[in-house]
Amino acid sequence: MKPLLIRAAVALGFIALYLWLAILGEGGFAAYFSSPARTGLAVVLIFMGVASAFVGGNISPGLREDRANRWVIPALMIVGLVGAYLPAWADQQGVWLLDGEAVRWLGVALLAAGGALRLWPVAVLGHRFSGLVAIQPGHQLVTTGLYSRIRHPSYLGLFISAFGWGLAFNTGVGVLLALLNIPPLVARMNSEERLLSSEFGAEYDAYRARTARLIPGVY
């Protein structure tokens, strides 16, 4: 039970910080929750935080880790925290606004879809899913389900969520900030694929040859 409580505390603490920054950017609670779409965004975000505590995963270096890739974690956290505040501030200030409530609700839907796609692989991999690039005890290559088409569904989910968050504030600023996730995510995928190729050899190379990183037929 203890690991679950720790995961729950960390997840909910991060969600609380994220929401607080967005509320601050919008000018306070009343301003933030004056929009039904932003209220829906908060509900989805809280649900995702609670769900993330139950799906598993860890931050163990396991049996072998690519420590040189650890810079990606603070990079994504910085982009995420700036992305929590700045789109809300731009929304409140009327900077580079898009097209109203339809865009906001599209963002909420994308956040929910991306969150589900982000958490599903964690639930599938369980203890083998680490916040670090590492080979875990009993590590096996999973090539079924969604993994039969794409190799990094969790990172695709993260990007879709970031994109949805930006759209939910109806500003192009949020879209640009979502794009800043791409360099660290690509570096993360490169590191993971090198490590998995060294661990599983020809099996992983054949798997990589028949699948897409993120989007079949595109990348």
UniProtKB/TrEMBL annotation:
Membrane topology: Multi-pass membrane protein
Signal peptide: none
Enzyme Commission number(s): 2.1.1.100, 2.1.1.334
Cellular compartments annotated: Membrane
Transmembrane segments: 12-33, 39-59, 71-90, 102-120, 155-180
Any GO molecular function: protein C-terminal S-isoprenylcysteine carboxyl O-methyltransferase activity
Sorted UniProt keywords: Membrane, Methyltransferase, Transferase, Transmembrane, Transmembrane helix
EC class: transferase
Record bears the keyword Transmembrane helix: yes
Statement: the UniProt record of this protein carries the keyword Cell cycle: no
Annotated GO biological process: methylation
Name of the protein described by the UniProt record: Isoprenylcysteine carboxylmethyltransferase family protein
